[in-house]
């Protein structure tokens, strides 16, 4: 925004102009400071919120361990809160199983779709597919749950037996829900691979598939793994849809057609009437989830760092 | 370009500040009007109700309406269970104890408690309308929920596994069911757990081999209530006592209810209060 001195201006006019500019500059410094302060305040509020949530969960959940040991809480399979048994072992296993079940089918499909959209499909089709994926990501989870309850549960009941509300139903619905996360992030990281890599590989005589297999996917590896871990985080944290289709029995499933209960389901199912130790136990369940998600985020950070190192090498 | 962006940031900042200010103001206004109250109210003070979690939702709605009518009154509704309601009433921690069973002789002897029944709750055992079973003995229901009876053919139905549907721990309906039918024994672990009456109904309506339980007033067209021990699950049989899966909701007070407690109980027993009870899903006491 420098002042361009136009020819034909008198000295007086020039002087006036420069005065105005100086004033503007002065005001801008004020505005800059105001903006900086506002942004700082926003950041502070956000940090404060996270800190408060963390403190709240732990303050509400930790007292449980003065009554029951940590081991009993984590590994006991007895969940009977009205009689004083608070073991979340079955739910821990439930969460792990349903998450693994979802990853088992959605990771291969998600990755293949991402590769297709980034490398094989014409750019315009790739873009359209990307928008469809975004649409999938925008559907509220209760809608997924409802579809699961009305379509998938009866389908499982009629084709495989059991009552339909099962580990399998949960894995199917969760898999659909984490597809957008996997596809979007993998696709972005595939698209971010420098074009030179691809050209060089093709110039060396590799086929398109060989290039994808040996050059592009390895180069985008850290992004792909991040997408998988983020998808896993979403699967662990998802609640509403899972509650609706998994049957929520607090027991270790004997088959994929048996009902399960996840840790998130446990909280949402029972928080309505829980009081006293029961409520504390639900907060403690929240603590375990919290730590699990923090752990996953730490893994992602590691991976991101490893990724940049790879890029340099 | 740069200046435009700056302006945008400033605008966003200002909007945020404005929003905060507005939020702050409105909150202040809210609390102010609450403090002022209405000078016309005759009743003032705080009333504490504690006890049964089954009665709690009823008490909460009743308390809300009561506070609307008497702005000077604050009614605290707490859970804790029927036994705690009795304890709290005897100790004086609660003005009114809410109990969803008959008092035991021991409880009756501990202090002079005045019992006021406010509602009757009936528990209906429900199945899919396509199910050919139309009635069961209480013992059969218990055995189904214990996991001893696993197939409908054992109790006069088709050859199909029973899908047992239950409510979550802490639910008042589950509490009623375990007390009346199960004799406090544990429900089989493989039971499907749903955390609302609506979800139980949807599950039973969608699975022709399912059995569940809901508050009797919530039985709709999509599901079928079974006769228990030969008695139809209808309000008249609950009131006459022939349908056994029922329990009273009672309020207890130390001595005769007085002041605020009396005013509240009178409100609960008034036609308006009783209608609220029916809307919330129990039967009138009269």
List the SSEs and their pairings.
The complex is a heterodimer of chains A (313) and B (286).
Chain A: H1 11-61, H2 70-75, E1 79-80, E2 85-86, H3 89-120, H4 123-138, H5 141-160, H6 167-191, H7 195-203, H8 208-219, H9 221-237, H10 240-245, H11 263-270, H12 277-312
Helix pairs in contact in A: 1-12, 3-4, 3-6, 3-9, 4-6, 5-6, 6-9, 7-8, 9-12, 11-12
Chain B: H1 2-36, E1 45-51, H2 56-69, E2 73-80, H3 82-91, E3 96-99, H4 105-110, E4 113-127, E5 135-136, H5 138-146, E6 163-167, H6 172-180, E7 192-194, H7 197-206, E8 210-215, E9 224-225, E10 227-228, H8 235-240, E11 246-254, H9 259-269, H10 271-280
Parallel strand pairs in B: 1-2, 1-3, 5-10, 6-7, 6-8
Antiparallel strand pairs in B: 3-11, 4-8, 4-9, 4-11
Q: Fraction of residues of chain B in helices?
A: 40-55%
Number of helices of chain A: 12
Seen as an oligomer or otherwise, the chain set is: heterodimer
What is the averaged pLDDT score of chain A? 89
Helix content of chain A: over 70%
Low-confidence stretches of chain B: 24-41
Strand content of chain A: under 5%
Tell me the fraction of residues in β-strands of chain B, as a range: 15-25%
Total count of domains of chain B: 2
Taking all Cα atoms into account, the compactness measure Rg of chain A is 27 Å
Strand/helix succession of chain A: HHEEHHHHHHHHHH
CATH top level of the largest domain in chain B is: Alpha Beta
Which H/E pattern describes the elements of chain B? Answer: HEHEHEHEEHEHEHEEEHEHH
Gyration radius of chain B, in Å: 25 Å
Tell me the strand order in the biggest sheet of chain A. 1-2
Question: What is the name of the CATH superfamily of the largest domain in chain A?
Answer: MetI-like
For the secondary structure, the number of strands of chain B is 11
Number of discrete helical segments of chain B? 10
CATH architecture of the largest domain in chain A: Orthogonal Bundle
Largest sheet of chain A: 2 strands, antiparallel
Mean pLDDT of chain B: 85
């Amino acid at each position: 925004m420098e002042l361009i001195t136009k020819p034909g201006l008198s000295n007086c006019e020039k002087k006036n102009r420069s005065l105005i500019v100086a004033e503007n500059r002065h005001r801008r410094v004020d505005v800059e400071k105001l903006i900086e302060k506002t942004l700082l305040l926003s950041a502070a509020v956000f940090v404060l919120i996270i800190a408060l949530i963390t403190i709240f969960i732990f303050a509400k959940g930790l007292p449980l361990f003065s009554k029951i040991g940590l081991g009993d809480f984590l590994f006991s399979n007895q969940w009977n809160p009205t009689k004083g048994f608070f073991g979340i072992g079955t739910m821990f296993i439930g969460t792990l199983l349903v998450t693994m079940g979802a990853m088992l089918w959605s990771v291969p499909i998600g990755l293949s779709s991402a590769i297709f959209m980034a490398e094989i499909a014409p750019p315009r089709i790739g873009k359209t597919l990307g928008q469809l994926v975004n649409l999938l990501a925008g559907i509220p989870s209760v809608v997924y749950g409802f579809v699961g309850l009305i379509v998938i549960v009866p389908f499982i009941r009629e084709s495989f037996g059991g009552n339909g509300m099962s580990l399998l139903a949960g894995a199917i619905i969760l898999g659909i829900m984490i597809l957008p996360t996997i596809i979007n992030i993998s696709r972005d990281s595939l698209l971010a691979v420098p074009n030179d890599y691809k050209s060089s590989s093709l110039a060396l005589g590799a086929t398109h598939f060989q290039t994808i297999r040996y050059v592009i996917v390895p180069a985008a590896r850290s992004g792909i793994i991040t997408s998988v871990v983020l998808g896993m985080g979403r699967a662990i944290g998802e609640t509403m849809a899972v509650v609706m289709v998994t049957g929520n029995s607090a027991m270790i499933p004997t088959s994929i057609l048996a009902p399960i209960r996840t840790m998130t389901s446990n909280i949402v199912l029972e928080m309505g009437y829980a009081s006293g130790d029961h409520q504390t136990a639900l907060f403690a369940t929240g603590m375990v989830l919290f730590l699990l998600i923090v752990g996953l985020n730490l893994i992602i950070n590691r991976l991101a760092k490893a990724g940049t190192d790879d890029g340099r090498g | 370009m740069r200046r435009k962006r700056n302006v945008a940031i400033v605008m966003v900042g200002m909007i945020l500040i404005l929003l905060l200010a507005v939020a702050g103001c409105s909150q202040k206004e809210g609390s102010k009007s609450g403090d002022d109250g209405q000078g016309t109210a005759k009743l003032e003070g705080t009333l504490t109700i504690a006890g049964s979690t089954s009665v709690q939702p009823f008490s909460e709605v009743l308390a809300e309406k009561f506070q609307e009518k008497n702005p000077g009154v604050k009614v605290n509704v707490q859970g804790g269970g029927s036994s705690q309601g009795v304890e709290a009433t005897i100790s004086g921690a609660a003005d009114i104890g809410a109990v969803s069973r008959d008092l035991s002789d021991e409880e009756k002897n501990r202090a002079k408690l005045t019992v006021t029944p406010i509602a009757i709750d009936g528990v209906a055992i429900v199945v899919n309308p396509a199910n050919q079973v139309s009635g069961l003995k209480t013992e059969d229901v218990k055995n189904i929920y214990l996991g001893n009876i696993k197939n409908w053919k054992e109790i006069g139905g088709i050859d199909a596994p029973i899908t047992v549907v239950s409510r979550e721990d802490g639910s008042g309906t589950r509490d009623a069911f375990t007390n009346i039918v199960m004799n406090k024994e544990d429900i089989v672990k493989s039971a499907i757990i749903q955390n609302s009456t609506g979800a139980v109904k949807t599950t039973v309506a969608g699975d022709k081999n399912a059995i569940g339980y809901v508050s009797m007033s919530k039985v709709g067209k999509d599901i079928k209530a079974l006769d228990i021990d030969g008695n139809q699950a209808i309000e008249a049989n609950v009131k006459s006592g022939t349908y056994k899966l029922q329990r009273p909701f009672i309020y207890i007070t130390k001595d005769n209810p007085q002041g605020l407690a009396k005013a509240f109980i009178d409100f609960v027993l008034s036609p308006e209060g009783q209608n609220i009870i029916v809307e919330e899903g129990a039967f009138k006491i009269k």
